[in-house]
Amino acid sequence: MSVRRLGKHTLPENPTWLEFTTTDGDKAQWSRNTTKVVDGDGQVNYMRPVTIDEDPAVHWRIVVGALAKALGKPDGPAYVLKTWPKGHAMYDRNKGKESNPRHDMYLYGSIHIGKFRSANEFVPHATWLFTDPTLTRSDCACKYCAKMPQKVISQSFGIIDSYWRVKRQ
Questions:
Q1: What pLDDT, in 10s, does the model give residues 57-100?
Q2: Where are the domains of the chain?
Q3: What is the pTM (predicted TM-score) of this model?
Q4: CA atoms of 106 and 82, how far apart (whole Å)
Q5: Cβ atoms of residues 47 and 106 within 8 Å
Q6: Measured distance between the N- and C-terminal CA atoms of the chain, rounded to whole angstroms
Q7: For the residues of 89-151, what is the DSSP string, one character each?
Q8: Contact 69, 75 (CB under 8 A)
Q9: What is the rounded average pLDDT of the residues 39-58?
Q10: H-helix or E-strand containing 152?
């Protein structure tokens, strides 16, 4: 089983914060498996809450913040999500040997989606939260709402290698 090493992501100096004004989040959707239990074989399988300033959260916030251009924001500032949408929270799934578990990041909270497994999965959903005040689910282009493969959605949004890139016209 592979082990993903977490990198070092830092916020840019003087970021311009993007803040959600709408949400589809509800704390009732958060993971409940948050107690670390080591079984008889030395294995763990639990979800550790990730604070907003931890490395994985910073990475996701920078990636999603890059959609600012698509939202009509002016060029220049370094846009970063200030927080998750209300009712959302990030978790680090620890699975495997206690001494060296695998780490997978998930964003929980949407009443429509169980969890987002990557920033790329969340970008289209975040775009919908930013642009549709009525939250008409059929207008959301994320893989779960649109029921399309992530590869197709990533291509249509110009997402490459975990970073948001706006297609040149």
A1: 999 999 999 888 888 899 888 999 999 999 999 999 999 999 99
A2: 16-122
A3: 0.86
A4: 18
A5: yes
A6: 42
A7: EEEEEEEEETTS-EEEEEEE-BSS-S-B-SHHHHHHHHHHHHH-TT--GGG--SHHHHT--HH
A8: yes
A9: 97
A10: helix 150-157
